[in-house]
Write a structure and sequence with these properties.
Number of helices: 5
Order of helices and strands: HHHEEHH
Radius of gyration: 18 Å
Helix content: over 70%
Structural class: mainly alpha
Strand content: under 5%
Distance between the termini: 27 Å
Shape: flat
Number of domains: 1
Number of strands: 2
Strand order of the largest sheet: 1-2
Largest sheet: 2 strands, antiparallel
Length: 105
């Protein structure tokens, strides 16, 4: 999900950011497009640093004996996260599912 927030290709976040850039430059809002581009690069660095922090440190709560206790996630939370990831990738791979609808409006 952080990759989608960063606008990495094949995610819905990339499609959304690409549409913003496309419209900004088609309407000749070059200064606005440049500001959005700079903000995107800064936010991508932030989100990717978060991903790096997640996978470079062990997550869990330490008890009195300084042993790491694994983090448990309920099945409903895992299912919700899985559905969100699947929809994010589906929209990223097949953007016409959403863009066709929004362009018709």
């Amino acid at each position: 999900m952080l990759f989608a927030q960063a606008g990495i290709p094949l995610t819905s976040g990339f499609i959304a950011k690409f549409d913003v850039f496309r419209v900004a430059f088609e309407q000749e809002f070059y200064f606005t497009g440049l500001i959005v581009l700079i903000a995107t690069v800064i936010s991508a660095a932030f989100y990717l640093r978060m991903v790096l922090a997640i996978y470079s440190q062990s997550f869990g709560e330490e008890n009195e004996s300084t042993e790491t206790v694994p983090l448990t996630v309920s099945i409903t939370t895992s299912t919700a996260i899985g559905i969100c990831v699947a929809v994010t990738l589906l929209v990223g791979i097949f953007p016409a599912l959403v863009t066709g609808f929004t362009h018709a409006l």
